[in-house]
Amino acid sequence: MIPTFGQAGTQSEKVTLELRRKSGEILKTLLLRKGVNLWVALRRFGIPVGASCSGVGVCGKCAVRNLGGQGIELTPRTELEEQTLSRQGLASDLRLACLCRVNADTAIQADYW
Ligand code: FES
Questions:
Q1: Ligand 1, closest atom to CA 61?
Q2: pLDDT tens across 39-82, in order?
Q3: Is 51 in the pocket of ligand 1 (CB under 6 A)?
Q4: C-alpha–C-alpha distance, residues 73 and 104, integer Å
Q5: Does the structure show a pLDDT above 60 at 11?
Q6: Ligand 1 and 63: CB distance under 6 A
Q7: What distances in angstroms separate CA 98 from CA 23, 39, 40, 43, 49, one per listed residue?
Q8: Does the pLDDT of residue 12 top 70, yes or no?
Q9: Terminus of the chain with fewer CB atoms < 10 Å: N or C?
Q10: Which residues pair with 112 in a beta bridge?
Q11: How many domains does the chain have?
Q12: What pLDDT sits at residue 71?
Protein backbone atom coordinates (compact mmCIF):
# COMPACT_ATOMS: atom_id res chain seq x y z
CA MET A 1 0.00 0.00 0.00
CA ILE A 2 1.30 3.47 -0.93
CA PRO A 3 1.57 5.88 2.04
CA THR A 4 -0.81 8.81 1.53
CA PHE A 5 -0.63 12.43 2.69
CA GLY A 6 -3.56 14.84 2.51
CA GLN A 7 -7.26 14.81 3.09
CA ALA A 8 -9.43 12.02 1.82
CA GLY A 9 -10.73 12.63 -1.67
CA THR A 10 -11.23 11.09 -5.05
CA GLN A 11 -8.38 9.40 -6.86
CA SER A 12 -8.26 12.29 -9.36
CA GLU A 13 -7.18 14.65 -6.56
CA LYS A 14 -4.09 12.60 -5.79
CA VAL A 15 -0.67 12.54 -7.39
CA THR A 16 2.05 9.92 -7.17
CA LEU A 17 5.53 10.96 -6.13
CA GLU A 18 8.46 8.60 -6.55
CA LEU A 19 11.58 9.28 -4.51
CA ARG A 20 14.68 8.07 -6.33
CA ARG A 21 18.22 7.57 -5.19
CA LYS A 22 21.07 9.00 -7.24
CA SER A 23 21.46 5.53 -8.80
CA GLY A 24 17.88 5.74 -10.06
CA GLU A 25 16.62 3.09 -7.63
CA ILE A 26 13.18 3.90 -6.23
CA LEU A 27 13.48 4.66 -2.52
CA LYS A 28 9.77 5.11 -1.88
CA THR A 29 6.51 5.92 -3.65
CA LEU A 30 4.09 8.34 -1.99
CA LEU A 31 0.52 9.30 -2.79
CA LEU A 32 -0.10 13.02 -2.16
CA ARG A 33 -2.99 15.41 -2.35
CA LYS A 34 -2.57 17.43 -5.54
CA GLY A 35 -1.14 20.87 -4.76
CA VAL A 36 0.57 19.93 -1.52
CA ASN A 37 3.84 21.66 -0.64
CA LEU A 38 6.65 19.22 -1.49
CA TRP A 39 8.81 20.02 1.54
CA VAL A 40 5.88 19.66 3.96
CA ALA A 41 4.90 16.32 2.41
CA LEU A 42 8.44 14.92 2.59
CA ARG A 43 8.79 15.91 6.23
CA ARG A 44 5.35 14.51 7.06
CA PHE A 45 6.53 11.12 5.78
CA GLY A 46 9.82 11.38 7.68
CA ILE A 47 11.87 11.62 4.48
CA PRO A 48 15.21 13.35 5.13
CA VAL A 49 15.25 16.73 3.42
CA GLY A 50 17.46 19.74 4.15
CA ALA A 51 15.94 22.60 6.09
CA SER A 52 18.44 25.08 7.52
CA CYS A 53 15.97 27.95 7.02
CA SER A 54 12.93 25.95 8.16
CA GLY A 55 11.31 26.09 4.75
CA VAL A 56 11.30 29.79 3.99
CA GLY A 57 13.30 29.47 0.78
CA VAL A 58 16.64 31.08 1.57
CA CYS A 59 19.13 28.31 2.45
CA GLY A 60 18.88 26.04 -0.61
CA LYS A 61 19.32 22.89 1.52
CA CYS A 62 16.04 21.37 0.36
CA ALA A 63 17.10 21.27 -3.30
CA VAL A 64 15.85 18.25 -5.25
CA ARG A 65 15.87 17.31 -8.90
CA ASN A 66 12.52 16.87 -10.65
CA LEU A 67 12.75 13.86 -12.96
CA GLY A 68 9.28 14.39 -14.39
CA GLY A 69 10.57 15.83 -17.61
CA GLN A 70 7.51 17.83 -18.68
CA GLY A 71 8.09 20.81 -16.42
CA ILE A 72 4.47 20.91 -15.31
CA GLU A 73 4.69 18.51 -12.38
CA LEU A 74 5.78 21.18 -9.92
CA THR A 75 4.56 24.77 -9.67
CA PRO A 76 6.69 27.26 -11.64
CA ARG A 77 9.74 28.81 -9.99
CA THR A 78 9.18 32.01 -8.08
CA GLU A 79 11.60 34.94 -8.09
CA LEU A 80 12.70 33.93 -4.57
CA GLU A 81 13.51 30.41 -5.76
CA GLU A 82 15.54 31.74 -8.70
CA GLN A 83 17.43 34.11 -6.38
CA THR A 84 18.20 31.40 -3.82
CA LEU A 85 19.39 28.89 -6.44
CA SER A 86 21.67 31.55 -7.92
CA ARG A 87 22.96 32.86 -4.59
CA GLN A 88 23.70 29.34 -3.30
CA GLY A 89 25.39 28.34 -6.57
CA LEU A 90 22.95 25.48 -7.14
CA ALA A 91 22.32 23.91 -10.53
CA SER A 92 19.55 25.59 -12.48
CA ASP A 93 17.68 22.30 -12.93
CA LEU A 94 17.17 21.87 -9.18
CA ARG A 95 14.01 22.85 -7.33
CA LEU A 96 13.61 24.02 -3.76
CA ALA A 97 11.14 21.63 -2.18
CA CYS A 98 9.91 24.25 0.27
CA LEU A 99 8.88 26.61 -2.53
CA CYS A 100 7.01 24.29 -4.86
CA ARG A 101 3.83 22.32 -4.89
CA VAL A 102 3.19 18.99 -6.58
CA ASN A 103 0.61 19.25 -9.36
CA ALA A 104 1.11 16.01 -11.29
CA ASP A 105 2.69 12.58 -11.01
CA THR A 106 6.47 12.82 -10.97
CA ALA A 107 9.72 11.53 -9.51
CA ILE A 108 12.31 13.49 -7.60
CA GLN A 109 15.89 12.78 -6.58
CA ALA A 110 18.16 14.14 -3.87
CA ASP A 111 21.89 13.40 -3.81
CA TYR A 112 21.75 12.31 -0.16
CA TRP A 113 19.02 9.65 -0.51
S1 FES B 1 14.40 24.72 3.49
FE2 FES B 1 15.73 26.39 3.11
S3 FES B 1 15.42 26.83 1.00
FE4 FES B 1 14.05 25.22 1.38
A1: 2
A2: 999 999 999 999 999 999 999 999 999 998 788 899 999 999 99
A3: yes
A4: 4
A5: no
A6: no
A7: 24, 5, 7, 10, 10
A8: no
A9: N
A10: none
A11: 1
A12: 80
Amino acid symbol at 107:
A
**Residues 6 or more apart from 107 whose CB is under 8 A from it?**
17, 18, 19, 20, 26, 66, 67, 68
CATH of the domain at 68: 3.10.20.30
**CB contact set of 6 (below 8 Å; sequence gap of 6+):** 13, 14, 32, 33, 36
- For residue 55, how many other CB atoms are within 10 A of its CB? 20
Lowest-confidence segment of 11-25, 31-45, 98-112 by average pLDDT = 11-25
Task: Give the domain extent around 39.
Answer: 4-109
- pLDDT single digits (tens) 77-113: 999 999 999 999 999 889 999 999 999 999 999 988 9
Summary count for the chain: helices (H), strands (E): 2, 6
What is the C-alpha to C-alpha distance for residues 83 and 88, in angstroms, rounded to an integer? 8
